């Protein structure tokens, strides 16, 4: 399965960067604006991964009914985005062996694309700040296409950009979003065990395997391609 891989599509939040601490600050500053009590990091981690709109809807639904969420949503999203841009990358950290894994993949001749549900205005400066942007020939955000992961559209568009069939492009992510999108697009998919996955066990994800780090993923690809 992994012996003909020419490129990799890699997720951002929960896969390359632990961004939950940034979410915590921005969300709780937004909640303070609305006179709402702060949330804990563990609660926020279960809400990450399906884009900013979904995140804010979930956050508001802890305090409001459907009508209240609808009434508050636009102002809350704007406040969250304002606060997030102000602190983007300050609390977040790269996961172990991300640089090493990305460099190892490049050394194997793999082309790299980042596909994230994070808006591009947040994703690009974050990747620059953490010094991983230069590894990627293309970055697609949650606002790059009409649909986000778990829809396969972003994966299919990335493969089209690469000029490769999905079977030649490995997807790597931390959540069921990534696996569902990859499966539907026809890409093989590996999962890292340390991300968010909406609070569910990573072992429940229908992927082609779990790799401890991106470097382990690169080593697996190297071994498969050396035979």
What does this structure look like?
This protein has 227 residues and is α/β, with parallel strands linked by helices. The protein has helices at residues 20-33, 41-45, 52-61, 66-87, 98-107, 120-129, 153-162, 176-185, 214-225; strands spanning 7-10, 17-18, 93-94, 111-115, 138-140, 169-173, 189-191. The chain folds into two domains: 7-18 and 94-225, HAD superfamily/HAD-like (Rossmann fold, 3-Layer(aba) Sandwich); 20-87, DNA polymerase, domain 1, CATH 1.10.150. The chain has nine helices and seven strands; from the N terminus they run E-E-H-H-H-H-E-H-E-H-E-H-E-H-E-H. Strand 6, helix 8 and strand 7 (189-191) form a beta-alpha-beta unit. Helix 1 crosses helix 4 (66-87) and helix 3 packs across helix 4.
Entry keywords:
elongated; DNA polymerase, domain 1; 2 domains; 227 residues; Rossmann fold; alpha/beta; two-stranded antiparallel ribbon
Write the layout of secondary structure elements.
Blueprint: E1 7-10, E2 17-18, H1 20-33, H2 41-45, H3 52-61, H4 66-87, E3 93-94, H5 98-107, E4 111-115, H6 120-129, E5 138-140, H7 153-162, E6 169-173, H8 176-185, E7 189-191, H9 214-225
Parallel strand pairs: 1-4, 1-6, 4-5, 6-7
Antiparallel strand pairs: 2-3
Summarize the structure.
By secondary structure, the protein is α/β, with parallel strands linked by helices. The chain is built from 9 helices and 7 strands.
User: How many independent structural domains?
Assistant: 2
Q: What is the correct CATH architecture of the largest domain?
A: 3-Layer(aba) Sandwich
Percent of residues in helices: 40-55%
By CATH, the superfamily of the largest domain comes out as: HAD superfamily/HAD-like
The CA-CA distance between the termini, in Å, is 13 Å
Using only C-alpha atoms, the radius of gyration works out to 17 Å
Oligomer: single chain
What pattern of helices and strands is seen along the backbone? Answer: EEHHHHEHEHEHEHEH
CATH topology of the largest domain: Rossmann fold
Strand line-up in the sheet with most strands: 5-4-1-6-7
Q: Tell me, what's the shape?
A: elongated
Q: How many helical elements?
A: 9
What does the main sheet amount to? 5 strands, parallel
Structural class: alpha/beta
CATH class of the largest domain: Alpha Beta
Number of strands: 7
Note the beta-strand portion.
5-15%
- Mean pLDDT, nearest integer? 95
């Amino acid at each position: 399965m992994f012996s003909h891989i020419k490129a990799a599509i890699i997720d951002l939040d929960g896969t390359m960067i632990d961004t939950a601490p940034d979410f915590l600050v921005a969300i709780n500053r937004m909640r303070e604006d609305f006179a709402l009590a702060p949330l804990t990091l563990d609660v926020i981690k279960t809400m990450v991964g399906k884009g900013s709109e979904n995140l804010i809807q979930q956050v508001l639904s802890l305090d409001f009914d459907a009508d209240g969420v609808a009434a508050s949503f636009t102002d809350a999203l704007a406040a969250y985005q304002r606060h997030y841009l102000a602190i983007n990358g300050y609390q977040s950290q790269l996961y172990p062996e991300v640089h090493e894994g990305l460099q190892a993949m490049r050394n194997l001749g793999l082309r790299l694309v980042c596909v994230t549900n994070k808006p591009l205005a947040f994703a690009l400066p974050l990747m620059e700040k953490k010094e991983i942007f230069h590894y990627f020939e293309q970055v697609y955000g949650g606002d790059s296409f009409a649909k986000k992961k778990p829809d396969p559209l972003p994966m299919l568009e990335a493969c089209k950009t690469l000029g490769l069939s999905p079977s030649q492009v490995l997807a790597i992510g931390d959540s069921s979003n990534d696996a569902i999108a990859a499966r539907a697009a026809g890409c093989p998919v590996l999962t890292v065990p340390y991300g968010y996955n909406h609070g569910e066990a990573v072992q429940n994800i229908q992927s082609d395997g779990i790799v401890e780090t991106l470097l382990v993923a690169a080593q697996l690809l190297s071994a498969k391609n050396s035979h």
